[in-house]
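Why this split exists: single-chain examples teach little about how molecules sit against one another. For that reason, every record in the complexes split bundles all components of an assembly together and asks for one structure covering all of them. Below is a record exactly as it appears in the raw files.
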Amino acid sequence: MRSYKQFCGVAKALDVVGERWTLLLVRELLLGPRRYSDLLSALKGLTTNLLADRLRRMTAEGLIERVTLPAPSGARVYQLTARGRELEAVVLALGAFGASYLTEPGGDAVNLRWAALSLKRRWNGTGEGTMVLRAPTRSFTIVLGAPLLVMDGELPADVVLTGEEPELLAALFGADSVTVDGDAAVWKAFRDGLR
Amino acid sequence: MRSYKQFCGVAKALDVVGERWTLLLVRELLLGPRRYSDLLSALKGLTTNLLADRLRRMTAEGLIERVTLPAPSGARVYQLTARGRELEAVVLALGAFGASYLTEPGGDAVNLRWAALSLKRRWNGTGEGTMVLRAPTRSFTIVLGAPLLVMDGELPADVVLTGEEPELLAALFGADSVTVDGDAAVWKAFRDGLR
DNA sequence: CGGCATCCGTCATGATACTG
DNA sequence: CAGTATCATGACGGATGCCG
C-alpha cells in the first residue's frame, strides 16, 4: 500500500479505502454482516487471495471486525465497525454519481442487495412504517424514517413485497409487478418518497 | 482499466474515478482550472506519464476539458465539466471521513489549497460576505452562503486575510496569527460557522 | 519550459492450485 | 468453509528523451 503522503483528509481517506475492491466490500457490509464466502460469491472477479488481503487490511485499519455468531449458527462473519459505518456517506455519494451510468445491465452482474442499498440515497420522503422485500432466497427489511434504514433479513412489518429478484428489483424502480401484502398505503408512501 | 462489471452506481462510479490519483485530480480542479505543470507540482509522486494518461481518460469520460485561456495568458488549462463537478460531493465525503486521520503533518505535504477546499465541508454557518485569503504566491476568495463558495484568485471582498501560507492555514483551524483587513465581523462570523 | 511519450524496475492485482 | 501459496500479468513509479 502506497500512501499519498499528503496532509489532506481526501488523500488520507484514499490511503485507507482507495485500493481496488475496498469500497465495494464496505458497500456489501452496509446492510449487515457477511461471511467470507458471501463476499466472494457476491463480488465476481475478486479472487480469494485478494479478499483475504483486503479483509486483513480493513481489520487492521479498524473498518471491520470478525465476529463469531452465537450457537447454533457459529458462523464467522465480518461486520463494519463504527468507523467503517462512517463510510456510508462516501458510498452513497459514489452511488449518486454513478447512477447516471446505469442504463442497461448488459453483461453486468445484477444484485437485489445493491438496489436495496441505493434506496438509502434515493429516499427523500417522510412517513412511518416497516416493509419487507421477500425474494426466494433472501429478504430485506426497510424502515421508513430519516434516515431510511435498510438491512438484511426480515423483521415484523406493515407490508410485505413478494416476488422473484428481478421483479422486486423492477418494483424498486417504478414497475409494479410484485405481490403486496399488508398496508398498501405504506408501500405507496415509500414509492412516492423515492427519487 | 478493468471494470467491475456490476450494475450498481457505486461500482460504476469506481469504474470511472477509482484509479489512483483520479479523485485527487478532481480535488485539485474543484477550486478552479489548473495547468498541466500546476497539477504535476502539486501532486508529488504523480509522474508525468501517469498524469498525461489520467487527463486523457478523464477527458474521454467527460469529467474534464482542456481550455485555452484568452490572450494575453493563452495558457492551456484543465477544468471540470458539469459532470466532473458532480464529484464534489464524493470528494467532500472522503474529506470528512479522512479528517480524523489528520493529526500531525509529519512528513506529509501541506497545501493551503487543500485546507481551503476543506472549508466547503466544514462550513455549517449562515451569513453574508466575501473574504480573501492572500498568501505570498496565491490567493483564494471565499463567498459566505449556502453552499460556501471557495475559488482560486482574488475578487473584491469585505475582508482580506494576509499571511504566510502556514499562518493562513493555521488561521483556518483556529489560530489567530494573520492580519485581518476590513470587516472583522465577517471574519468572526466565518470562524464561528466552521466545525 | 510546458506537454507529453518511452523504457524499465517494482509492486499490486488476477488466476489457479492447494490446505487446515 | 475459510483461507494460504504460487505464478503470470498489468498498473504504477522513476528516469529520461523528444518536440514545439
